[in-house]
Amino acid sequence: MRERRTFWACFTGWALDAMDVQLYAVIMPTLIAVWGMSQAQAGTLGTAALLFSSVGGWLAGILADRFGRAAVLRLTIVWFALFTFLSGFTQSFDQLLFTRSMQGLGFGGEWAAGAVLMSEVIDKRIRGRAVGSVQSGWSVGYGTAVLLFTIVFSIAPPETAWRYLFFLGLLPAFFVLWIRRYVEEPEVFREMRATAPESPRLQFLEIFGPGLRRRTILASMLAAGGLGGNYVVLTWLATYLKTVRGLSVLGTGGYLGFNIIGSFLGYVISAHLSDWLGRRKTFVIMACAAAVTVAAYTLLPLGNTAVLLLGFPLGFFQSGIIAGMGATFAELFPTRVRATGQGFAYNTGRAVGSMVPALVGVLAAGLGLGTAMGLCAASSYVFVLIATAMLPETRGRELDAALEPHAEAALPSYAAPPVPTFGAK
């Protein structure tokens, strides 16, 4: 029961997080028209939230190691919901830049707390698929944002519809009441705090010590490559479909829906593959396929039907890379700094990766939006392959095994796990 409640709490929290973040992506073409923003300014708004989400992830990781994973999860959800709501009142680019940046703090923190919470509660045999399946909640949240966009923009003029969408972003805050009542701190965390109740003042620096420094750097590189390519599509796809392909609001929603279905299945199937094939093989397969797909989608002279159909594998592979990161990063760090290390690596990658959508906005002026998207996203996936080649395989590792900095060579043999039952002990 505890595993099931934790799973659905993290899944729903991540979905609501995605809904609030992706509201901006679907609103962006309207803001470009209504406010007369340039593509570079639009890219800056997207990048600002991602940059601040990196800071939020670092802070949330440190706080989660000190005060608890569930406690910090609740705080971050309320934070990003509040600032999404306040975005609906903005009157200028500078004001929206501020609220989007503040929203990013909660957005990044939610992943840092939720991912480590899931990793510590779920059995090691199904950790990869469980944590990866939680991340499929992003597609559900993105789909919800697109659905709300289609409904609201169909019944209200664009000049006010975008504000109504941001106001709806307050809804996730009410979900915290359920988390507060039903989600407990992981047992492994409580045991760690019982034996070491006082955290060292400079605990954060441990992830840069001789035993963990290499893991921290490589995990950050892996996240930077995977998220950089992912953010290009998440940030610019709606704008590409509307401005380059000339689709209507309903048409854009339909194309995005096909992409989102592929994304959802990419998270779930890749999560299962990470338990069956191993973390490293899955990263390699997904990165290679994602690079080829995004290049074909944006660089080849395809008709609208081909673009619609290719949207499915585009979403599948870009999300498939992300699915394995939560479990992999948790298996690289010991319990006392797991949230710190996991939050830093993922969110450092997010900070670096967040530069890529802004770069697309700058390059689009000379190359065209489609070409800029394809080149930037495909190039990002090269970093996934480099990091994967140098990271250890961690599938099947007991979380306390991460206490040994050089335990890679002693990892246990591993058999294919059974079908997951999140309520099982």
List the SSEs and their pairings.
Elements lengths: L1 H34 L3 H29 L1 H19 L5 H29 L5 H9 L1 H19 L2 H11 L7 H7 L4 H9 L17 H32 L4 H28 L2 H21 L4 H20 L1 H6 L7 H16 L1 H13 L1 H22 L35
Helix pairs in contact: 1-2, 1-3, 1-4, 1-5, 1-6, 1-7, 1-10, 2-3, 2-4, 2-15, 2-16, 3-4, 3-7, 4-15, 5-11, 6-7, 6-11, 10-11, 10-13, 10-15, 10-16, 10-17, 11-12, 11-13, 12-13, 12-17, 16-17
Q: How would you summarize what this structure contains?
A:
The chain is 76% helix and 0% strand. It is mostly helical and 425 residues long. The longest helix is centred in the first third of the chain and has 34 residues, at 2-35.
Oligomer: single chain
Name the beta content range: under 5%
**Helix share bin:** over 70%
- The CATH architecture category equals Up-down Bundle
Briefly note the CATH topology name. Growth Hormone, Chain: A
Could you characterize what this model shows?
With 425 residues, this protein is mainly alpha-helical. It has one domain: Growth Hormone, Chain: A (Up-down Bundle). The protein contains 17 helices and no strands. The protein has helices at residues 2-35, 39-67, 69-87, 93-121, 127-135, 137-155, 158-168, 176-182, 187-195, 213-244, 249-276, 279-299, 304-323, 325-330, 338-353, 355-367, 369-390. The protein is globular. 58% of the residues are buried. Residues 401-425 have low confidence and may be disordered.
Distinctive features:
single chain, 425 residues, mainly alpha, 17 helices, globular
